[in-house]
């Protein structure tokens, strides 16, 4: 089950005038998302502000990137001009994190046909493809139905007992999982019972995924052969979205996302943590 699309495939879809919507979902610390978009974007791409369109209001109680209100997603999808017959292609700067978040949120909101551009804008430019600049075109308002709850999620209460019945995956890097470093959240460590498989280890050097068989081997090494008993978390839902996309790329569906992640868990001083 492919969740990705290559630069070559996207280029041909654009040239062929197919029913597609390309969404620029970049975020960096150096520029605002809109500045990134107006400086350079893939032709036909529409603008997405990840903090506004893909997340709710951050808090200690809910984590750094909680689920957005469905009305916020509905407004964004309408603004992008998405219709029911469109293939939606999302991309970011190249590391896949914000594109995967957009992929997951749009699937959660009921969109059926969503792909991520492998390698993002960096790969597009590396292959010599043209970019556009400026504010872009204003599409006709979209009309695709948008409803919440179309991807499985788990909350903090379910996560407490999840390791007793299934596999709880921490998708952060090993040093954060072990509690040896923590730059963004209130405490270092991991949720009791979690196993660690870093989402970054599932990617190649250009931001795409490893071959399917390699992905399946990595998942099997932590006991994952079926997604129905798997819950995944990261710091705030970015690396965990990438992990779930990788699962689906390997044909493993049904994994649940703990959206609040470590940022929510570590924000509650009453909850236990593990350091190695």
From TrEMBL:
Please indicate which superkingdom the organism of origin belongs to.
Answer: Bacteria
* SMART domains noted in UniProt: RHOD
Q: Which InterPro entries match?
A: Rhodanese-like_dom, Rhodanese-like_dom_sf, TST/MPST-like
Domain Rhodanese span(s) in chain numbering: 16-133, 164-274
**Pfam family for this entry, one:** Rhodanese
Enumerate the UniProt keywords alphabetically.
Repeat, Transferase
Give GO terms: molecular function aspect only: thiosulfate-cyanide sulfurtransferase activity
User: What name goes with this protein?
Assistant: Thiosulfate sulfurtransferase
Q: Which organism is it from?
A: Corynebacterium lactis RW2-5
